[in-house]
Design a protein that fits this description.
The complex is a heterodimer. By secondary structure, chain A is mainly alpha-helical. Chain A has two domains: 428 residues, no CATH class; 140 residues, no CATH class. Chain A is 72% helix and 1% strand. In chain A, strands 1-2 form a two-stranded antiparallel sheet. In chain A, helix 4 packs antiparallel against helix 7 and helix 16 runs antiparallel to helix 17. The radius of gyration of chain A is 33 Å and the shape is globular. The C terminus of chain A is likely disordered. By secondary structure, chain B is an all-alpha fold. Chain B has two domains: 111 residues, no CATH class; 128 residues, Cytochrome Bc1 Complex, Chain D, domain 2 (Orthogonal Bundle). Chain B contains nine helices and two strands, in the order H-H-H-H-H-E-E-H-H-H-H. In chain B, helix 1 packs antiparallel against helix 2 and helix 7 packs across helix 9. The chains are: A mainly alpha, B mainly alpha. Chains A and B meet through helix 11, helix 12, helix 13, helix 14 and helix 15 of A and helix 3 and helix 4 of B. The complex binds protoporphyrin IX containing FE. The site of protoporphyrin IX containing FE has 24 residues of chain A, from helix 4, helix 9, helix 11, helix 13 and helix 19. The site of protoporphyrin IX containing FE (HEM) has 24 residues of chain A, from helix 4, helix 9, helix 11, helix 13 and helix 19.
Chain lengths: 666, 269
């Protein structure tokens, strides 16, 4: 039995409540009115005339305040605060976003130009198209970079006026060139982009080259400002300027220039690959899938090329920081930030693992690559071991009991894996293995036809083995020598790896001349590979954010290390946990923004609205098509779906289509 | 090292390989096996945080191992699928369904009844030293200073030897109670201290430090530690109150000589 809701009582209740509220309000105000002082005479004029002591005091004090306002001397503000989150976090996020976009905008022209050049030399149209596709991502990103840069500048001036003023005084001669270069960058960028196929190839290549030159110069100038803050030079102890040139060429300027160029290329490549993956996953036709698969592959190739030399650049940077100030070096590697380097190590290990994994998955699209399948698991084992060593912390996060048991904050056995010798060895072997993956991938697509192929393979094997032995040998020897010699050992280690890279590539060039090309089915790759590409891009971005925090955080409570003290409320180093949150937030925002750019860029590939309307229904793109490679790959998942949708073979349901499902044949 | 655990692990894996077990069993065996190895092979237990890192890395690699090969992936899923779908596994499936909340419950129980633990010990073992210190009224710039007697090693080996002997005396009169007769941090007082005295034989201590850094640590002791070097209950005394500058430099010479390590050199640009 259903009861009618008692409408009337409810309505009455509401009304009553409103009435009570109004009544009590009225009562209170009246009551208040009664209590307040009222001059006995009610005419306006007489109220003014008969000034009570209270109103007199009120008037006088407000007059006094007004007079004070007028006399107030002008004071330079040292800091201004952003409400709630504070200045530091605000400027941190904006600067980080600006850097991420800038890195992307600087990186894409580098490899777009190289790819265009390859297309020009080989006459292969595909390369030209690919380079153009990469360049398309630039134009919206460039505006974002500029906007964020302007935002950063305003925020610096508003939030840190005094310090910004100081930086300006040291670097005043650099600002005008910066603006001019920025102008030139815009000019070259847009003429490179819009002039695609409109200029003669040489002129166009020249535009691309200039775009790169100008972009690199821009970055070098900006790097001077920020490296000066960490490792100042060219100034007196008071901070007074002695030489702007010395201030520019401070300790970490060149190492950061180099580390950033390389890291930018790696980052840019991975973001472009993520774009390709994003389009691949949405692609409706085999043709599109083939194109974006190839684009993703090329992007990832660029990223790996950047990844391989990065550790060396990183070590150089670290040693310069150490040379500048023992304090800063120790803070970084042994002190407050050493925990962060564990995270860094894990992220970098991930990068290597994912990059290799992607290459292995990519072998699936090549006919005849099966013969290299048995190489995969040993490489995986090597990578896992190196990754584990690379991520073994020197001083371990442990409970008091664990510390007591270990006899210190390093483990008596694992401690041997945490020192520099082990780490150098691990990262060099990681690089070699990644390179080997790549060589095998190439080899699976091309079968050498030259008569000396066997011997060449053997020599290449010897080179790999020799480099690995050198690396491991020096790694072990490193435990038995003093610190300085040990640091020196990294030179032959790196040298042998680089030599192996160069020699093997050289042999490959001659070996694979006129090679038989195996059929490569672009687009026939398992979708998981595309998620890997996206993961790579996210990891890179995160890593950049975290390392930026290290670089800036190393200054601790200084604006300019050792010279200009940070006296604001934010003059403490944010905790690692907090920093991770801010960086994660920034990465999230970055991907939302870049996702928007991807979406916009994707629009330019679409047919115009009118063209779609004019299509006959038969031509509508996006008809589901069965792609053999993909359906094979996802058959596992399909089987799962089919199985879970139909829990029991016993139910008697047995459609013909499902009979092919192995699990249901019981 | 408990070699038996390691040998048992290898033997078990070999047997599994020889029996050609399914990929799912193989992956599970690796995970469980490595977990046991990490926990029980080392006499000195490996801290939980490191085990977590290692297990994470290995899981990721196993994941890659399975997913790189479509055949392997199918093989991996088939038993799981069968387990979920096939009627003959129903009772087991029901057990698993019950086990999951039971595990959660157990976890909560374990958390509630755990003995209270001191929080993680994130002490910075080698904090950044100040730029300069004052010991016995003379100032020393730590960034550039070196052991004033280090040169004697080549220029005057006789005097160097003498100084080593003096350093030895200083060490065995003052330091070995805590740092141990073999400099392995196992002196007679060591067990009562937290943090425990530094093990100088460990390649991660004096072998990677400069002599000036040691001088600072010896002269200023625990009271001279900067903030991130806390907690401050370190028992390391400030030896400037008991030893002369010369004695402190001598004992540093002795520390390196005895352990066979070389100090990190000052890098000049
Ligand atoms: C495989 C090894 C490495 C990779 C993949 C890597 C990657 C990166 C990336 C992507 C950035 C951001 C660059 C940018 O802002 O444009 C970066 C910055 C940085 N890296 Fe590395 N790095 C590696 C090794 C190292 C090492 C060994 C160190 C030193 C201990 C190091 C120290 C730094 C620092 C301090 C920064 C901040 C620079 C800045 O943004 O101003 N890196 N790294």
């Amino acid at each position: 039995m259903s009861r009618k809701p008692p409408v009337l009582p409810i309505l009455l209740g509401v009304l009553a409540m409103v009435a009570v509220i109004v009544a009590s309000f009225k009562f209170l105000t009246t009551f208040d009115d009664k209590m307040a002082f009222k001059s006995p005479v009610r005419s306006e004029a007489s109220v003014e005339a008969a000034e009570t002591p209270r109103s007199q005091a009120l008037r006088e004090s407000s007059e006094l305040a007004a007079a004070k306002e007028l006399e107030k001397p002008y004071e330079e503000a040292e800091y201004r605060a952003v409400p709630r989150i504070g200045s530091r976090v605000a400027i941190w996020i904006v600067a980080q976003l600006h850097l991420l976009f800038a890195a992307f905008v600087l990186a894409v022209p580098i490899f777009a130009l190289i790819i265009e050049f390859i297309g020009y030399r080989t006459g292969d149209e595909r390369y030209d198209k690919l380079a153009y596709e990469f360049t398309k991502l630039l134009s919206a990103s460039f505006s974002f970079t500029a906007t964020l840069g302007a935002g950063l500048t305003f925020m610096l001036i508003i939030l840190y006026p005094k310090f910004t003023n100081y930086l300006m005084s040291v670097f005043s001669p650099t600002f005008l060139p910066y603006v001019l270069l920025f102008f030139a960058e815009a000019g070259f960028l847009y003429s490179y982009y819009y002039g695609w196929g409109k200029f003669s190839p040489r002129v166009h290549l020249f535009l691309g080259l200039m775009l790169n030159v100008v972009g690199t110069a821009l970055m070098f100038i900006a790097n001077a400002w920020l490296t000066f803050m960490s490792t100042p030079a060219g100034i007196a102890e008071s901070g007074a300027l002695i030489s702007t040139w010395d201030a520019i060429t401070n300790y970490t300027w060149m190492p950061i220039n180099i580390h950033r160029i390389i890291a930018n290329v790696a980052f840019g490549g991975s973001i472009a690959a993520a774009y390709a993956a994003f389009q691949f996953l949405q692609a409706k036709t085999d043709e599109e899938r083939a194109h974006y698969d190839w684009m993703g592959y090329m992007g990832n190739f660029v990223a790996i090329c950047g990844l391989l030399p990065l550790p060396f650049a990183g070590y150089w940077l670290a040693s310069e920081i150490y040379a500048f100030s023992q304090t800063m070096g120790l803070t970084m590697m042994g002190g407050a930030f050493s925990w962060l380097f564990i995270i860094q190590a894990i992220l970098i290990g991930n990068l290597f693992l994912f990059a290799n994994w992607y290459l292995w998955l990519g072998m699936g699209r090549i006919k005849g690559a099966e013969r290299y399948r048995s190489f995969i698991w040993p490489m995986l084992v090597v990578i896992t071991i190196c990754f584990a060593i690379w991520a073994t912390p020197r001083s371990i996060l442990s409970t008091t009991e664990e510390v007591q048991a270990m006899g210190g904050s390093s483990h008596p056995m694992l401690g041997y894996l945490g020192v520099m010798s082990a780490k150098n060895t691990a990262v060099n072997i990681l690089i070699l293995t990644t390179f080997l993956s790549f060589v095998l991938y190439r080899r699976s697509g091309k079968i050498p036809t030259v008569s000396w192929a066997k011997q060449a393979n053997f020599v290449q094997f010897l080179i790999f083995a020799g480099a690995a032995t050198t690396v491991i040998g020096y790694g072990i020897a490193g435990y038995f020598v003093d610190a300085k010699t040990r640091i020196g050992f990294s030179v032959p280690q790196v040298g042998s790896v680089l030599a192996a890279l160069v020699l093997v590539t050289l042999i490959d060039v001659f070996l694979l001349r006129n090679a038989e090309t195996a059929e490569t089915n672009w687009g026939k790759i398992r979708p998981i590979s595309q998620y890997l590409l996206i993961m790579l891009a996210v990891t890179f971005t995160w890593l950049m954010g975290l390392m930026g925090y290290v670089r800036a955080g190393l200054r601790q409570h200084w604006h300019v290390f050792g010279v200009i003290r940070d006296t604001s409320v934010d003059a403490f180093t944010p905790s690692l946990g907090f920093a991770t949150k801010v960086v994660s937030f920034t990465v999230l925002v970055f991907f939302l923004l870049i996702g928007f750019i991807f979406y916009l860029t994707g629009l330019t590939n679409k047919k115009s609205y009118q063209a779609i309307k004019d299509l006959t229904p038969r031509d509508v793109p996006g008809e589901p098509q069965v792609t053999p490679g993909l359906s094979a790959a996802s058959s596992g998942a399909t089987a799962m779906n089919a199985a879970s949708g139909m829990p029991a073979g016993a139910s008697g349901y047995s459609a013909a289509g499902h009979d092919s499902n192995p699990t249901l044949k019981t | 090292m408990n070699w038996w655990v390691l040998i048992a692990f290898v033997a078990a894996m070999l047997v599994l390989r020889w029996r050609r077990v399914g990929i799912l069993t193989w992956v599970a065996a690796w995970l469980v096996g490595l977990y046991l190895v990490l926990n029980y092979v080392f006499v000195v237990p490996v801290p939980v945080s490191v085990i977590k890192i290692y297990m994470g890395i290995v899981s990721l690699s196993l994941f890659a191992f399975v997913l790189t090969d479509s055949q392997r992936m199918t093989e991996f899923w088939q038993p799981i699928q069968a387990f979920v779908v096939e009627p003959r596994y129903r009772p087991l499936l029901a057990l698993v369904a019950l086990a999951i909340p039971a595990l959660v419950a157990f976890r909560i129980y374990a958390d509630m009844t755990a003995t209270p633990q001191a929080p993680f010990f994130a002490r910075t073992v080698h904090p950044a030293p100040p730029d300069s210190i004052i010991v016995h009224d003379s100032e020393l710039a730590l960034g550039t200073a070196d052991n004033p007697y280090r040169d004697l090693e080549t220029s005057n080996p006789e005097e160097f030897k003498e100084r080593l002997e003096k350093g030895r005396a200083v060490y065995y009169l003052n330091c070995f109670y805590c740092h141990g007769d073999l400099m392995a941090g196992a002196g007679m007082y060591a067990h009562a201290l937290n943090p425990i005295p530094t093990n100088f034989q460990d390649p991660g201590t004096i072998a990677m430090l400069r002599e000036a850094f040691l001088y600072w640590r010896i002269a200023k002791g625990a009271p001279g530690m900067p903030e991130e070097g806390g907690p401050w209950q370190s028992a390391m005394p400030a030896w400037e109150s008991f030893l002369t500058e010369e004695e402190m430099w001598n004992v540093i010479l002795f520390l390196y000589d005895f352990t066979g390590y070389q100090p990190r050199a000052v890098e000049l640009h």
